[in-house]
Amino acid sequence: MKGKSAIITGSNSGIGLGVARELARVGADVVLNSFTDRDEDHALAAEIAAEFGVNARYIAADMSQGDQCRRLIEEAGGCDVLVNNAGIQHVAPIDEFPTEKWDAIIAINMNSAFHTTAAALPHMRQRGWGRVINIASAHGLTASPYKAAYVAAKHGVVGMTKTVALETAEEPITCNAICPGYVLTPLVEAQIPDTMEKYNMGREEVIKKVMLERQPSREFATVEQLGGTVAFLASDAAAQITGTTISVDGGWTAL
Ligand code: NAD
Fold first, then answer.
1. Which of 56, 102, 106, 139 is the most buried if burial means most Cβ atoms within 10 Å?
2. How far is C-alpha 77 from the chain's CA centre?
3. Using CA atoms, how far apart are residues 133 and 229, in angstroms rounded to an integer?
4. For 199-243, what is each residue's pLDDT tens digit?
5. pTM score over 0.85
């Protein structure tokens, strides 16, 4: 990936950070992003630059705002690889689902991918190469109760992925979605102690019987595995893979 540049939205933690690190490891210059603008955000980019010998910078932009999504792409000078990863979750029955949470999830998890993709494609066309990789979810293919906004947004992202793939099919640009099951991110790790207490179970039992109940492998996916899947989709080996989804879910969607 030497000489290629990547923008990863929502990449100051979790999957986005894992993806940024893997793309840097294989030689890409990376732009990290989130909505905060703290010293530690910029320090993450500096660490990646020092560790992997690539250019890395952090650009603050709120992915709930369409104009900021587009500004992120322009401020970065476009990119070869766009990874739409920023996402949030809220869990509630639909008749009690707070409207502001619905709007925020649809904006961050789905609309942001519209704005960044629309802004990035002209740059990719100018460069004659591009990869749009959307981090959807097993919930882009299946549903769970109480996650109406998340499931709607992720299904929307999968649909948009197919459309962008068709619109770029005759160009050296691809667009795909990755659908992770449960991934061990700091956010998920933080839920383990409370869940252990709630169910009066040990760590392994809580992970396998409660958290990974729908994941037949009974193993979390890791951010490194997600990074590797993104790097594969960005590689020349994946040049004819477009408009599809790759599940990294330990068999969840095979059930
Ligand atoms: P995370 O909370 O660690 O990461 C989310 C990232 O998005 C963070 O960097 C956060 O700062 C950023 N973000 C949130 N709101 C933002 C905004 N308004 N503007 C810009 N950035 C914003 O969670 P994660 O698990 O790494 O999730 C990353 C993506 O993977 C999400 O789209 C999520 O839906 C998806 N996903 C996660 C899992 C899982 O089990 N962890 C499973 C399937 C899909």
1. 56
2. 21
3. 10
4. 999 999 999 999 999 999 999 999 999 999 999 999 999 999 999
5. yes
CATH of the domain at 18: 3.40.50.720
159 assigned to some structural domain: yes
Residue 37 lies in a domain: yes
Q: Are 123 and 169 in contact (CB under 8 A)?
A: no
Whether 62 lines ligand 1, by a CB cut-off of 6 Å, is yes
Do 9 and 38 touch, CB atoms closer than 8 A? no
Residue of minimum CA distance from atom 41 in ligand 1: 183
* Judgement on whether residues 145 and 190 belong to the same structural domain of the protein: no
Number of domains in the chain: 2
Instruction: Ligand 1, residue 11: give the atom nearest the CA.
Output: 9
Cβ atoms of 82 and 7 within 8 Å: the answer is yes
User: Within this chain, do residues 119 and 199 fall inside the same structural domain, yes or no?
Assistant: no
Confirm or reject: Cβ of 134 under 6 Å from ligand 1: no
pLDDT of residue 190: 85
Is residue 72 domain-resident?
A: yes
- pLDDT tens digits for range 183-201: 999 888 888 999 899 999 9
86-137: pLDDT as tens digits: 999 999 999 999 999 999 999 999 999 999 999 999 999 999 999 999 999 9
Residue ranges making up the domain that contains 125: 5-183+221-249
Shared domain for 60 and 167, answered yes or no, is yes
* CB 249 near ligand 1, within 6 Å: no
**Residue 186 pLDDT:** 86
Cβ atoms of residues 177 and 164 within 8 Å: no
